[in-house]
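Retro notes, item 3 of 5
We never archived the inputs for the hexanoyl-coenzyme A complex last cycle. Fixing that now. Sequence and ligand:
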Amino acid sequence: MDFENVLIEQHTNLAIVTVNRPKKLNALNTQTIKELHTAFKRLDENTEIKVIIVTGSGEKAFVAGADIKEFSDFTVEEGTELARKGQELLFDFVQNLGTPVIAAVNGFALGGGLELAMAAHFRVASSNAKMGLPEVSLGVIPGYGGTQRLSQLVGKGKAMEMIMTANMISAEEAKDWGLVNYVVEQIDLLPLCKKLAGKITNNSSVAIAAAIKSVNANYTNCVNGYSVEIENFGLSFGTNDFKEGTTAFLEKRKPNFE
Ligand code: HXC
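Structure as it came back at the time:
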């Protein structure tokens, strides 16, 4: 498969996966999600690769979310399928990879973008990064595991606040809240991720895969939470607020929710 929207670089036993739609701030459309799935699958199957770094193209965004234009006219069924398929192909898939995945958050990580960063095993951010789950401002809810993983990482109260206000938080706040492990200048972001990757590659890959599985076991048993999220994400597509929220974004105006 030739990739349109994903770049892969290999440096000995490290791979860098870059989401590459900079003109759309690397928004995740269906094609990009499929390509990311294939990229992660291939790298996980490649025994030379010991660590994967995922980042966004350009200096402005990691990933600004799911592609709003693509889903703005979806029905309830299509919305449900979007969330279900995306969780299966990318978000659950990355979380459960035996190869460690570090998210290098180099700018906006919003909605599906923050959800991708949270599906990675840990996160490092550049100082310009901004993170949030703005879905309710569009009349939908997070649908790629965000309601579950954000609560796991920052606790229920902070997750509720971020989701309800749709506010973006700074990289420093994200570090204080435990959402990212380090904050560095953008120029130092990949070097720091590579340094951390280097430490990981000194250790046993077999043991690391077993550790990932064990850490995840405590979180993936809450399968019901992910299903409830998918169901409610899909149901949002039947509301007037969803139509108003997505139309307002595409028309570059503020939504007027009744
Ligand atoms: C589609 C997007 C996009 C997105 C940005 N773009 N984010 N297109 N989907 N999520 C496009 C813009 O339309 C614009 O295209 C170009 O990228 C540059 O963006 P601007 O808005 O002009 O940039 P700026 O003014 O700097 O604002 C940056 C921004 C803003 C604050 C990040 O783009 C923004 O609010 N984006 C949407 C963020 C969001 O709501 N994400 C959550 C999506 S819902 P043109 O063609 O006009 O140049 C989601 C659901 C996940 O993620 C669950 C699914 C199951």
